[in-house]
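Reviewer comment 2.1 asked that we show a complete input and output for one of the modelled complexes. We chose the zinc ion case, as it is the one discussed in the main text.
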Amino acid sequence: MTTNAATFAIKSPAVSVHNLESLASEVRSEYFPDANGIPVVWGKNSGRKRRRSIRLGSYHRGTELIRIHPLLNSTSVPVYFIQSIIYHEFLHHVLGPAHDRRFHRHERRFRYHRESKEWLAHNLPMLLGLRTKPKHVDRRRLRTKVSPPPVQLSLF
Ligand SMILES: [Zn+2]
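Response of the prediction step:
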C-alpha cells in the first residue's frame, strides 16, 4: 500500500442488484429441502466507507432471520459468494451457533466453498473499503512503504 493510493470502496446501489429471495430459495432447495423457510434480508447499511471488520451475515435464533450485509448487494460480488453466506447462516439455523467440527464439515459441502473462500481472501480489502488502486507508479513513493492496517475478520 502506498500513501498516494486512492481509496476505493464498493457502494450499495439504491436498486437491488441481487435477488436475495431467489438466491436463498436455491440454497434451501438444494441443501436444506427439509428445513422450514426462513426470511433472508439485507441488513442496514451503516454508511461507513472504511471499517476494521465486517459481519457478512448473521442468523438470529429468536427471530429466525438471516441478515446479509448490504455491501454484498453489488455487481462486484458473485452470486456464489452471497449464497455461501446464506448457506453458512442456514447451517446455524439447522445445527446451532457453534463453529465446531461438525459445522465445518457441513460447511465444506457447499459446492463453491473453496471458490468462496478464495474470493473473500482476494476481496476482503475491497469489502473493508481498504482496497487501493495506485494511479501512477511513482518510484520515490514506492520506497516509503506503509504497512496495511491489521485486518480483523469477524465472519458471521
Ligand atoms: Zn457462523
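The first helix runs from residue 20 to 31. We note this here for comparison with the apo prediction described in Section 3.2.
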